[in-house]
Inverse folding.
């Protein structure tokens, strides 16, 4: 437990002991709600606008009205960060349907529950970046877009949890899920990229993925570097034929894959040339974002250097 974490519940900052939600909250009963995970660098929330826009989109896709305006959410975030003891932090904003009688009807819950958590960031071990991770193709398929669209970053995470458990059993760090058509989709909390025939490839949004914010940043960098980029439909064969594979996420940034397992196994030489270049450019992008945000100050969350 991170004793120095900041917690904001509904309308105020609370202590960990006070941070209690009803057992009749539909987030707890049904996984009915949405969330965002953000990474805070030196007190600056990286890509905050984009994360808040995605939160709004997820909420609207489940017909949940956010209980606060974007500005109110930002103020809650800054307040929470201020009491949190860390400038490099893990930040999560969660909005559930709220408390209501048992039953599926969203209208049973008049008031969504709003919760911000800011705590110590546990970045992945250095080894991940230096040696790479193992990615396992799992049997669990990514949710059908027409059933529960992966674009919704929802509290209903069992699909990903089951894939993660499978990957763990296979001794892998992350799972690679296929969609119902057998095409590459994404990891349990990450997007996947690979390099093949001189192009940087990644499953397109039509494959049923969460459009990762890190994925978008990396695609922007790749295009700026004049790399050939293909967002499309791919299969396991494409990974087996690739020269480099990596995954992306807000918390992990860009992590090379050194071993792919599944039906067949393939080893990759840790971070290849393209992956290394993108890892470095991503860090530069974060640094300039942090500098620019600080330069645009005075910051309303009151962090001083
Ligand atoms: N996970 N795909 C899924 C299913 C995810 O849950 C995530 C994010 C991503 C990567 O998205 P982004 O680059 O915006 O973080 C892709 C976050 C980190 C989480 O669940 O905590």
């Amino acid at each position: 437990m991170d004793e120095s974490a900041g917690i904001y519940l509904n309308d105020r900052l609370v202590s960990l002991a006070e941070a209690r939600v009803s057992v009749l909250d539909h987030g707890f009963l049904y996984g009915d709600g949405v969330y965002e995970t953000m990474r805070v660098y030196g007190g600056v929330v990286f890509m905050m606008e984009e994360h808040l826009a995605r939160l709004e989109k997820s909420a609207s896709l489940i017909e949940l009205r956010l209980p606060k305006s974007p500005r109110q959410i930002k103020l809650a975030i800054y307040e929470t960060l201020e009491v949190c003891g860390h400038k490099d932090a893990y930040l999560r904003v969660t909005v559930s349907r709220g408390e209501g009688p048992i039953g599926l009807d969203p209208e049973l819950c008049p008031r969504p529950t709003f919760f911000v958590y800011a705590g110590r960031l546990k970045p992945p071990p250095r080894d991940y970046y230096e040696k790479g991770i193992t990615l396992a193709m799992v049997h669990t398929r990514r949710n059908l877009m027409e059933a529960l669209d992966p674009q919704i970053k929802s509290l209903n995470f069992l699909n990903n949890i089951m894939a993660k458990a499978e990957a763990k059993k296979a001794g892998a760090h992350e799972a690679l899920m296929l969609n119902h058509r057998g095409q590459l989709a994404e990891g349990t909390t990450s997007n996947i990229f690979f390099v093949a025939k001189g192009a940087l490839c990644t499953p397109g949004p039509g494959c049923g993925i969460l459009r990762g914010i890190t994925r978008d940043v990396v695609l922007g960098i790749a295009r700026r570097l004049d790399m050939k980029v293909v967002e499309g439909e791919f299969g396991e064969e494409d990974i087996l034929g690739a020269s480099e594979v990596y995954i992306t996420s807000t918390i992990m940034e860009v992590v090379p894959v050194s071993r792919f397992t599944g039906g067949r196994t393939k080893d990759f030489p840790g971070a290849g040339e393209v992956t290394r270049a993108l890892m470095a450019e991503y860090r530069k992008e974060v640094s300039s974002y942090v500098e620019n945000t600080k330069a645009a100050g005075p910051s309303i969350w009151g962090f001083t250097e």
